[in-house]
Amino acid sequence: MKTTTRFGAIGLAVALAVTLLSAGAVAAGGADGVHQVGSIDASIEDEHVTIDGLELSADGLPTYEIDERTYEIDSAGIQTDGVTVDVNDRTYEISSIDLTVENVSVTVSDVSIDGGR
To answer: Based on the number of CB atoms within 10 Å of its own CB, is 8 exposed (0-12), middle (13-18) or buried (19 or more)?
Structure first.
């Protein structure tokens, strides 16, 4: 798989994870402490996804600018175990994430990644 296709798949996974975590945050209610979200199994097939106006900044990332580009993803999978995310002073634990992407095109526009160098 080409590096640019992997980058597109990772971007898609990040966007999907944020969406799923937001849904988990709404479902968790108003309790304090750690909230168990459980497992997330997601599959995206035969779709077109658009990521627009994204700005990421973190140490270790490459510095990269994308005005507009479309990536075709034939097949990609991402699996994680034991993810913890802090959102608005709350901690959410996800026991596992299994994301499968097949036959998806991703259009990325106005994206900026800053490696914090």
So the answer is: buried
Q: Which helix (H) or strand (E) holds 117?
A: none
- The residues near 75 (Cβ < 8 Å, ≥ 6 apart) are 100, 101, 102, 103
Per-residue DSSP letters for 68-89? EEEEEEEEEEEEEEEEEEEETT
The CA–CA distances, whole Å, from 90 to 57, 60, 61 equal 22, 26, 26
The model carries a pTM of 0.49
**pLDDT tens-digit series, residues 70-95:** 989 899 888 888 788 888 888 888 88
- Residue boundaries of the structural domains of the chain: 3-114
Task: Give me 17's structure tokens.
Answer: 């994870």
| Rg of the chain on CA atoms, in Å | 15
